[in-house]
Amino acid sequence: MKDYQQAIQEWQYKIGSTKVESSIEQREKYKQNITEYQDEPPVAILKPTSRNDVQAIVAVANKYHIPLYVVSTGKNWGIGSKLPVKSGCVLVILSEMNNIIEVNEKYRYAIIEPGVTQKQLSDYLLKNTNLMFPSTGSAENTSIVGNALDRGSVFFNHRYDFLTGLEVLLGNGKIVRTGFWHYFDSHETRKPIFFHPPGVGPDIKGIFTQSNLGIVTAMVVRLKPRTPGTIVYAEFKEDNFVAFTNTFIDLKESNIVPNWLMVTNKNDPRTTVANQFNYTGDWSAIFSFSGTEKLRNLCQQEVEKRISKFCDNLLFLNSSEIEQNPAHRYYSILQMLYNGIPSNYSIETMGEMNKFDFKNSEYEVDFCKKISGFKAVTPAIPFEAMAMKEVIDLVNKVSEEFQVTPFHNFVSIGEMAIEGLFRVYFDRKKEEEITKAHQWTEQLDKELEKIGIYPYRMSIKEMNHFSNRPKDTYWETIGVIKKQLDPNNIISPGKYCLEDI
Q: Where exactly does CATH 3.30.465.10 map onto the chain?
């Protein structure tokens, strides 16, 4: 029996009234999102500061059958932000659980809570170690845990490869730890060391990514040494897209460069010159290689020999010399990102589209109507030049039908896969532009599915179409697991799962 008011009162008593927000003004605020989805506000907002708080929240939710929608910092911009998949949920924001529990330099790992931001971990590692953790290009105050659980992409690495262990509070109130971690009681003096993430037996950490099977209260991430490297920045015309991409694939399969590439159309706010936001057919690409100076010189010679004929501009940046470059301010940002140092550059350049200065803001784009809204479609695409070009042409075709300007971005997410990040921007005060952007998304999803291309990440509005398929044995199996771990279906119902279990 759902009794929201009684549940709110119990939460106030058990975790403290300052951690519970339920006024109309507070609830309406968290309804705001940069994609301008028009949904009901959450029933209440809970901000726990510890695992004990989360356990108390789950116990009360089970008692009254109240659905919870859980986010880390909730900066899932372009695909839902803090909004629940289904209405009638209480929003649980874990941003106040922001402890760096442990950093082990010898075995190269960190244990962090969900609210730990990219900047927080980066600052700690820079001050205390010679280690780094890969960064996304989004913003300094985004959650590492939230991004990793949604299998987000990062610069110069594949972040999912760094996910080492999870502590998960299940909907049934039990706590499970993955790998060897579960053999070590948290009160014992023996501490686990995370040298073999799978542990022994089934490796279950993957089922808690892109899922609603539990609430992650701590994550173990692998760290890597900071090593000198060379960043390659290339510019080329769309006519050379296939040849450039095929040449990069040859380079990485020859082990001359690592398996990471980002390709962006130069109308992107980060790379554009003189605020040219129309689709240009001009592209930029970024990749890197590392090692001793002698080895990097040899790599540079080989890269230049093979790839320069396709490029209008080819630049090699030393990762160790982070300084403002008069040619383009983006170069120093790339040097920072190579070293795991996040920045707010991407958001600031979005602000520049609207002549808005973020310097004195908290970079809370959901609550800032002065910058453009945007909607993203993020499919997984074969890391193969002709497949990528087919998707480019399809995105342009659908965009022309809806008379919107597409922004193209590709970033590799594995040995054989690359993520497409396609988005359109719109005026958040113009209903017709908002509607057109949402229709563009729906149509593009359908057209991509026709050629066998499915989402890498799903927005809250795509969940029903792609994962609410009860006749699909895969989603049926996920539903069976969900029923066992969360019998009352209280944790993020509908998220990467059947709606009814």
A: 100-225
